[in-house]
Every structure is written in C-alpha cells, then in structure tokens.
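REQUEST ID: PR-0412
SUBMITTED BY: lab tech R.K.
PRIORITY: routine
TASK: structure prediction, single protein chain
INPUT:
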Amino acid sequence: MQKKLKILFILSHLHGGGVERRTAHLLKYINRDIFEPILCLREKIGEYLADIPKDTKLFVIERRYKLVTLPRMCKMVIKEKPDIIFGVGHWGMNLIIILALKLIFFRKQRKLIIGVVNNPSSFEHQRIIRFFYSFADLIIANSQGIHKCLISSWKFPEEKIRVIHNGIDIDHIDKLSSETINHIWMKKQNSVVVSVGHFLKQKGLPYLLEALEIVNRKKKVHLIVIGRGGEEKKLKEKACEIGISDRVDFIEHQMVRLIYCSLVLPYVQSISIRKKMVIIGAMVRMNFS
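STATUS: complete
OUTPUT:
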C-alpha cells in the first residue's frame, strides 16, 4: 500500500471568508487515499470549524505573544513530518512562519505551496512579500488576473504558478437554497444589491456605496453587505455621510443562510480608481424593476 502524503494547511482562523471557505472545501473533498490532511490554526474560532471533517488532524497554536508561535509550529512539524505545507496569507506571522519552516526543515523532497487569493498589486510592502514568495515550490493563484500579475509585475516564472479557482460546494448550496428567506427587504420584493466579502480596503466597498447613492437619485435600491473586517466602522460612517444608511444593511457571515435578490454583485478582489466608474456606470444603467 502506497504511503499517504501528509499535507499541512496553515491558517490563522476559520472566520468567514474566501480563504477559510476554500480550506474547508479542500479538507472535505481531498482524496484521502492519497493525502492525510492536517490543519494548523493560530486560533480555534470561526463558523467554518463546523465544516472541518472529523478525521482531520487539528492543531491549535494558542499563544499570548506572537514570538512563541514559531517554536510551537516547529515542534508540531517535527512531530508530524508533513510532505507538503500549504499556506495562505500575504503578510504577517503566517508568511514568516511558513518561510521559517521551509528553511529549517524542508529538503528538496518536501514541498512548500503558497496560495494567493488577492491581487498582489494591492499589497503593501510588495518587495518583502515577493522575497518570501520566492521560496515557494509552487504558487497557487485563484484567478487568471492574479496569475498574470505574478508573472508580469513580480516576474515569477510561469512554470512556478498554477491557477486553481475557488471550489464551490454545490450540494451545500442546494441545501441552503431550500431554506426560507428571512430578510425584510427580500420579503417586500424590493430591488436589492448584495455584496459578499471581507470589509477590506482593496474590496472597493466605498465605491459601491457611492454608486448606490447615485442610483437612489432615480430608483429606490437597497444594499445588503455580507462580511466583516476592519473597515466596517468607516463604511457605516460613509453610508451615513452620503445619506443612504437606511438603504444599507451590514450582516455578518454566520447570520446569513440564503438571500435571493434581483442582482448579486460579488466582491471585488482589488480595485483601482478607474474601476470606480465601471461599478457606478453598471449600477446606473441597470434596470431595477
């Protein structure tokens, strides 16, 4: 019988988001005849904890101080001896830890894979992050746009990058689709825009609020923003400032099961000023009926 490959997934937590959802899907559907999955979290929190299969070996690096994270990670790696490390994150302790593990433990037969889920052109400290990424054996981009940026802007060789789009759990979505819609705006059959994603600067949500204000000059349209993040307070303040706070509802991921709407506007991975007018133009031209 062929020995299974141990694959270690490193993540900060399992709060709602694309990275966390993708990790949960991978752990659920990865071929267990070939791989033995291991999950390492810095904090055991998040709604996707419930989606992690019971046979997944789970390690939690509980710590008061960030500096003790690396020694505890090293101890876990020595014990488990993974064949592959799969890390996601463009900055902070995750990237430092992943690189340190590569340099300390991993020989040529061990592989380090880094997943990139946001456009690198939006990153701060790009030169430093590029240096960290250069140690990866393989880089997984979740879109063709990110793949193009890594090659054209960061000059990574094309053979080092693969595009794997985020998976979708169709069975889970079908199950949710049978649930009752419980948002009052949906029950009243109002025109509603839904945005899903973390409240981060690169998502361009302030532009979406400005677009909604312009649309509401001609047509009453509501916006449901699903997510969480550091920009939430600023977004709520902006909605009040431009006079649309009564048309916007901010909802955390775990509060939402299903929302059916006349238009679903997915979150934007990264956005420039030029794209601001694209969003506004698209919304103004949309026939909300």
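NOTES: The CA atoms of residues 150 and 156 lie 6 Å apart.
REVIEWED BY: pending
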